Amino acid sequence: MGSIAGLERFDSPGKGRALRVTRPFKVGELLYSTPAYTFVLSLNERGFNCEFCFTRKEKLARCGKCKKAFYCNVKCQVGCKDWAMHKLECSAMIAFKENWCPSEISRLVARILAKKKTKKERCASEKILRIDEIQSHVEDVDNEKREMHEADVFGLHRFFSKHLKLPDHKDLLTLFSQVACNGFTIEDDELSNMGTAIYPDVALINHSCCPSVIVTNKGTSAEVRAVQNMKPGDEVLISYIDVLYPTDDLNNRLRETYYFTCDCRDCKNKSKDKEKLKVRKRSDPIEPEVISNMVRYARKTIREFRAVKHTKNILSELLEMCEQSLEEMGAVFDEANVYMLHVMYQAMGVCLYMEDPEGALTYGEKIIKHYSKLYPPFSLNVSSMYLKLGRLYMGLERRSAGVSAFKKAMAIMEVAHGKDHFYLTELCKEMAQK
């Protein structure tokens, strides 16, 4: 097992394996950068992003065999050894045609299995944690998730068995559980999903709703930067989930996905819940039971929206659903309430899909007023919202407002991504061109 300068593994009480710093780190300083053990580009991004480096560009070279995968050039396709991964899918896509439909997690697991066959590749990628050391929590998986994993295992056999010698069923279920708990989404500057990757060295970092570091991507590599000043002995902590929501919601999500409850200072004293669940000011106080009922209504609405949000042929109905729920919740909740903000964010997304920039901007301007107060400093959720607003302003020829929003995004991104990140370079070009 290797090491990374300035960091060491240790046993964290109640958490197990963990990572801490052995020297001071300042806000914005890079703790370490690590390549993905392996990764996969989302199918929705094919044709827009390079399959190997995830660069987004207009003129990409198409794979001559399957005609489905795209690359910057021959170097990305062959010279950087992506063919070793792509060949797992290439002939299968040709053979199955429109019936080729493995899940993204099945595609990633196939690449992990292919990668593990090469000892040299494995040793080069694993600095402080081996891929086999990643926790699986397979014993904690409920029946619903087990059925999903079983379906993914079936897809793995159906679409990849020609090129892979697959482990036994039990080992595959363990591997799928490992990936489900430890897979990282690779996102663009607006937090849109581009793909999924496995980073063993990042999987060692524990969760806190008060994170000390943030993980961002440069291409397919992960970069870990401090968002708090750190002193020797401080544990390296990231947030596994979106921390916008109240304590009970956060811990329900952590239990469902990662099988633990957070004990950070915010979760222990629920210090931010009152602000997150802000209610309207009225001369006659709102009864606690009314508030509790509205919280249940909000959670139900969010679940229902998630179930149908990808059905693009009913966009107008989705927007109407958002507007109705905002009206219903608005009788009890303040505009700053996180459930109101959640529905506004969904409504903004629907407006963008419907190519209604004015409608999207109306929701976005309301959201950003509260995001910057509710999220931790240097949050990507805040910077991505400023980027969205900046691009909407620019598109509507409101240059001054657009530049202002871009600058606020850049102030966060310089810490989270580093001042030399190409997102910042491209943003400067975008501002100059507009």
UniProtKB/TrEMBL annotation:
Q: Biological process (GO) annotations?
A: heart contraction; heart development; methylation
User: Which Pfam families does the annotation name?
Assistant: SET, zf-MYND
What name does the UniProt record give this protein?
Answer: [histone H3]-lysine(4) N-trimethyltransferase
UniProt catalytic activity: L-lysyl(4)-[histone H3] + 3 S-adenosyl-L-methionine = N(6),N(6),N(6)-trimethyl-L-lysyl(4)-[histone H3] + 3 S-adenosyl-L-homocysteine + 3 H(+)
A GO MF label: histone H3K4 trimethyltransferase activity
A single Gene Ontology CC annotation of this entry is: nucleus
| Record keyword S-adenosyl-L-methionine present | yes
* Record domain MYND-type: where: 50-90
User: Into which EC class is this enzyme placed?
Assistant: transferase
Gene symbol here is LOC117727485
- The species is Cyclopterus lumpus (Lumpsucker)
